[in-house]
Amino acid sequence: MRSLFVCLFALSLAVDAGAQSSKLTTVLADLVRASSGSGGGQTALSADALPQSVQDAMRSRRLRIDANDNVQVYILLSSVTDETVKQLTDAGVTIEIRDEARRRVQARLPVSRLNTVAELAVVDAIRLPTYARRRAGNVTSEGDAILHSDAVRQQLGLDGTGVRVGVVSDGLKGVFAAGCTAQCLGVDGGPMATGDLPAASGVRNARGVLTSAAGGIIGRSFQANGDLEGLPPATPACSFQGAGAEGTALLEIVHDIAPGAKLSFANFDTDLAFNQAVNFLAASNDVVVDDIGFFGEPYDGTSSVSRNTAAALNNADFPIRAYFTSGGNDADEHYIGTYASSGVDGTTIAGIANPGRLHLFQRAADTTDVLGLGPQPYNVISLPQNGEVAIFLSWNDPFGASSNNYDLYLVQQSTGRVVASSTDVQNGRQDPVESIDFVNRGAQDTFR
Length: 448
Prior knowledge:
The chain is 18% helix and 26% strand. By secondary structure, the chain is an alpha/beta fold.
């Protein structure tokens, strides 16, 4: 799936904040309307009956609803105290993580309770959690030779002995799966049997979920479901592709480069859980590495993830001395610039009801006009049939205190109609983020 994020340095109001009064983000409001219309939750609706916005968000795994129709969300509160949390639990909310500094909790609640909880006076907004984006693809690594770590081992005798390396990623898929033979690339026993990973043991609960690892790999899950393999529903645990496989691959790379190093691993689902995973590894590892990125957070090093990681590195009680992450992966898939009015009102496009001037996209110091379109009140992307895209818009308001209210629309070029939108309200207590998930179910087309 392609991802595109747009950053606007906003100084003025783009749309009327009164255009949407709900505290629910657009896709959650769509979910509630669909659920209410069916007289029940997700189980009362077939997947095909759900609005496309909901289907696409579920397909991208940014909207996660369990078998009991409970949806995972962030609830932004006036403040996070025992009293405000009690009001949530009394309303049927299960609290997973509290973040007092950012005035939010990670929680799970029935779809049918979303509106009720949103109407509580202590609730400022209910939004989808910030989930991670994996950075690496399914490729064979040649990092050992590229980094010349093989020469270091041969000439200096340094192989990582005496060092513990922690990895934060999606899961340990395929490492401890029982009965894996041909499914594990035709190799009996998987990566431990081939020497790609050190011998370790995994612990499963009564439901067969891998919850921890010990021995050559010390592992712990910070996902809400406690699944160390990081598997979404109906994903085979033996396969080395898809969700959960990247953590296995990263551990194999570390073991190739530094076979003498001890290994630790942690996985997570949201940015709040990511911070817990980082703190866990920082408390017992010399080096920690991840391959993760987050959209819907500040991109200037002030996000909670950046601040938490810096705090872990500077904690004198922790052994961690180095932290490595990916960078620059989205250089060709983003736009950044100061908001500029195009003079074109959004209501000139069929399907846009909120008045407001469209932003003028144009070449700037940090942006290249790749297609040579010149200044236009839109940006352009092309999607093949069944192509997916996630689009994020953020601007430089404080998170949890945005008072500039922008909306985000995706318009099909061939028909001129709005095919996806995000019209969340920002009135001083929300995050400066709008986001869209979209799947092009028709023929290849251009969108703006």
